Amino acid sequence: MKGDLHLLSATEAVGHILDGRLTSEALVRACLERIGDDRINAWAYLNPDIAMAQAQEMDRIRKSGRATGPLHGVPVALKDIVDTRFMPTERGSPIFAGRKPEADAEIVDRLREAGAVIMGKTKTTELAFVHPTDTVNPHDEDRSPGGSSSGSAAAVAACHVPLAVGSQTGGSVIRPASYCGIYGFKPTRGVISRRGVLQTSASLDHLGTFARTLEDLALLTDVLGSFDPGDPASFARPRPRTLDGVHAEPPVEPDIAFFELPILELLDPDARDGIDAVIEALGPRVERLPVADALTGLIEVHLTIHEYEFVQHLDEVLAQNWDKVSPTLRPVVERGRKISEAQYQDALGVKASAEAFFEKHFTEYDAILSPSATGEPPLIASGSTGDPVFCRIPSLCGLPALSLPLLVGETGLPIGVQLIGGQEEDDRLFRTAAWMQRALQDAA
């Protein structure tokens, strides 16, 4: 094959590789050429020789007639908090400079089993929290790509790779996907194993996926999902098949809820206008709901758990390396140290109540419609990767959440629309998202 191979979707690429029209070596070489000097600073570690060796091995396997996988020969980027034996994992912090893990994370094993090429490690904010990295937004280099999965989202948006893995504790998948104009997905907590990934909050951490098509997003999610007894959140039962959801027709038109939360006041005017336009286009399929008592205060509950557990997990290494902790992160750590055990336990109790509320809610609705972010990506000069406020509730409750690149802001930059589903109904959420995209296209 000739042409712009880096523009291929993962689904297209693996199809061409398996039928012999494309080699993994050619695809990976095209992606490396696209990356070039990495002008957007998406990569924390990239070794072309390692990437090409994997591609050549995948081509050798295919030509030998041996079994191939659903991502055979396709390059995938990993956020630099995912352990890899053959690449350093530095977690966006000088504390871990040069760190070389002794074992691969569970998801690395899943990717290798699927035939993927581990392209390299993408940049993350410091310890996957608040201090920005130097990655810029591919659409506007003066803008942030979001955080903490900055490099993963930017690399996919810039067509460096068709797929990337990120993580979300607050809004670190959904918000970067929104800012970079791509698809992002945070599955139900427990669908994807977190073993071998930096732990910042045992209660809230999720792994997530990035792609330029909904089908690719589902393909990668299904590959990564597996039961792992090494992760306490992992559950020993079948996973929702999200790719089946993309291709399925809803038995009836979905019912979608939109909560009139006070935080909607934080939306930029163009983002609010865009959300209203989506709701209007979907017509009677969307029901505006008043704020439920159970939702009050959940943003603060999420913050309490996140900051408390961050300190519990990492305080020893932070205290030993305080001179290497950024001025941005230090106040967060100090705040987390002041949260009492009683406050933390109270927050966990509210979390459990909120999860019960949503379990009942999704017996009546297929999804919740929400902004992915407050608007267009912020300027890098602001020192912020953006406000994750619209992502905190699904992260708190472990709900699957999708960001769809549907809107464009006042200056022409992307704004995502978020769909949130019920626990372990990730396939239903993808089915609703695919239906919604078709409905909006028909209404345009």
Describe the structure concisely for a colleague:
The protein is of the alpha/beta class and 444 residues long.
Counting H and I runs of at least 4 residues, what is the number of helices?
Answer: 14
CATH architectural type: Alpha-Beta Complex
Structural class comes to alpha/beta
**CATH first level: which class?**
Alpha Beta
Indicate how many domains the architecture comprises. Answer: 1
Query: What is the ordering of alpha helices and beta strands?
Result: HHEHEHEHEHEEHHEHEHHHEHEEH
**Uncertain stretches:** none
Strand residue percentage: 5-15%
Name the average pLDDT. 97
First-residue to last-residue Cα separation: 35 Å
Shape category: globular
Query: Main sheet, how many strands, which sense, barrel?
Result: 11 strands, mixed
Per CATH, the superfamily is Amidase signature (AS) domain
- The CATH topology corresponds to Amidase signature (AS) enzymes
Q: What is the CA-atom radius of gyration, in angstroms?
A: 21 Å
In spatial order, strands of the major sheet run: 1-3-2-4-6-5-10-11-9-7-8
Helicity, in percent? 25-40%
Total beta strand runs: 11
